[in-house]
Design brief:
rod-shaped, mainly alpha
């Protein structure tokens, strides 16, 4: 008799190994699109389990990817509630410039909130009457930092309400809400200075007054960005 330990299982009994079991992206692992609905995810899991479920590592990888997608879907559903999609995610919607501007404005700001936000910016803007340019520059920098901080808080809350996809491979440092906050604050400040320069330096005003008004427009721009931009 031959060595029983040397016998191999028939080919039909071998466990088929899932080739994508080490894929870190759950959508790619299951073979579904980012905008796949619940039933598509379930169908993909069932299909893969029927084919590769006998192999332990493959089975665990499929289960983990499925759990991640379902968990992420449930978390978004809890925060936002059920929202029927008029368009599948991934499709772009063309918006006019006016629509983009209107959507970027925070219409929930009340007069009291706007007045409270104006206090520190008004105190900083009051330095334009100072003859010392260094004091004014420091106050302008403080107002820019304050605007950035306010925008950062808004973007942070927005990110918490709309977490990135589980398969988003962008480094976390680059996804920080500080970057859009810095960008908006910088653009707003620069645009305000350009606007003030174009307006006040073309009016019949003394150069010293025109310069102060240009600086004042920068403070106003920082305030508007911090208060009314989403």
């Amino acid at each position: 008799m031959g060595d029983m330990g040397g016998m191999q299982a028939p080919v039909g009994m071998e466990e088929e190994v899932f080739p994508r079991r080490r894929e870190r992206n759950p959508h790619k692992l299951l073979g579904v699109q980012k905008d796949a609905d619940f039933q598509e995810i379930v169908d993909a899991k069932n299909y893969l389990m029927a084919r590769y479920g006998k192999h332990r590592d493959s089975r665990e990888a499929i289960d983990m990817a499925y759990d991640r997608l379902i968990s992420a879907s449930q978390q978004k559903r809890k925060k936002k509630g059920f929202r029927p999609l008029s368009k599948r995610r991934g499709q772009t919607v063309d918006l006019t410039l006016k629509q983009r501007v209107m959507r970027s404005i925070d219409w929930s700001v009340t007069p009291i909130k706007a007045a409270n936000k104006a206090v520190p910016f008004a105190l900083a803007a009051a330095t334009v009457i100072q003859p010392n340019l260094e004091v004014v520059s420091l106050a302008l920098m403080i107002s820019l930092v304050l605007a950035t901080w306010n925008l950062f808080q808004k973007k942070k809350l927005e990110r918490e309400d709309n977490p990135p996809d589980v398969d988003d491979e962008t480094p976390s440092a680059l996804r920080s809400p500080i970057w859009p906050a810095l960008g908006i604050a910088a653009v707003s400040s620069a645009a305000s200075i350009m606007f003030g320069t174009a307006v006040f330096r073309n009016l019949p005003l003394p150069a010293s007054i025109a310069d102060k008004l240009v600086l004042l427009s920068a403070f106003v721009g920082n305030y508007l960005a911090a208060t009314f931009v989403k």
